[in-house]
Amino acid sequence: MIKFKSISFKLGLLFSSLFITLLIILGVILYGAFTNVLIDYIKQDLVLRGNNHARILNEQFTESAINHVTEMEKGVATEVLITDANQKILGSSSVPTNEMKASILDKSLPPGDSTLVDDWYNEPYLVSASTIGDGTGYVYMYYPSSNLREIVFVLSVLLILTGIGILLLAFGLIGLASKRITRPLKLMKKATEKMAKGEYKQHFTVNSKDEIAELSQSIQTLGDQLQYFEDSRNDFLAAVSHELRTPLTYIKGYSDILGKGNIDKEDQKVYLDIIKKEVQRITFMVNDLFEMSKLQVGEFELNKEIADIQTVIEKVVNNLKPAATKKNISVILDFQPDLPPVEIDVKRMEQVFYNLIENGIKYSNEGKMSIRAFAKEDFIAIEIEDTGIGIPEKDLPKIWDRFYRVEQSRTRKSGGTGLGLYVSKKIIESHDGTVHVTSKVNAGSVFRVILKKAKIEEIGE
Question: What's the total number of domains in the chain?
Fold first, then answer.
């Protein structure tokens, strides 16, 4: 069934209209050119034959010469009629018809001139008149206009039939071409309909290298990205539910125990410490989610001030030292003397280094962690190196994505929602800085943060 509103029909109609227009123009041009060439050829042939006969008769204007000329024109399409100076018929190749007689001139022609009747469409004959010598007589040549009209009619039929054949062939080719052009569009339409229903990952082949192929590739890439975000979201929800369920279970369980009473003070203190620890764990998770939501809606604000980066890092290290000591990890600080100050949001930057250093401790069992800071040109570089389990090379580009976590099972054991590095990178970039990581499995990782030095006028203020 033909869909009149479909792109393939519209394309076919457009191409067909253009093709028909061009074909009609070409047909008219060919018809006119062929007709004019044919008529000009016949006219020139008539004049030439009449002039030749007039030349022969000028040399010998006798009865035998007249008979010879008339015999030459018998059995052919043309007719000849010879008159004397007074337009009296002396001979002809056939019995002169009234139409032939009507074309005989009623006056003398100048010597050597010839006249021509060329209205082939309305007159019965094309006629040429050639003067014999200085007016001794005249040679009239006739070509039936009906022959010309038949030839032109046959030519018209041939052109029409050829045009119809070309049109049918063109319609077929245009139909195939329009279907070939619109096929990828139909595939993309079906793919987007499936994507709208939640089937994001779509793959289809477009055998071309044009803009349509680029569009199809973009749609497939979009589908892959949507699927990735959907999977990440599902993993995130699973992680959040897991992370919430565990501390809430502890809080509920120990709250029930405390609610029953008859517990000595030492046990009460242990239970309250566990509840406090689990509440802090939930608080960290909620803070990560809150920071991510502010980043997404553009409400992330910075309260920058001139600060000493060494002081910021040392404060974070002191807070995390108990966790490092518990896992037999020694923290080594190596700061260049007299580090230039930086203009930062101190609380945000503490959050960044807390995430980076805590990750190093979390994914290391023992060994050491080195934290170095040094000035380089207009920047300050901070390197955080651990000897932990490392990150697989294939995961390095993805660790900055929202909700992404390397090896889901190990991450759930150690906690985390996959938002810490995402938030940290956004904070660093909002300070016009950069962060990079190099890592080797079972050898450790190095996170490198680059921040701009504070300008002199800012320090003065």
Answer: 3
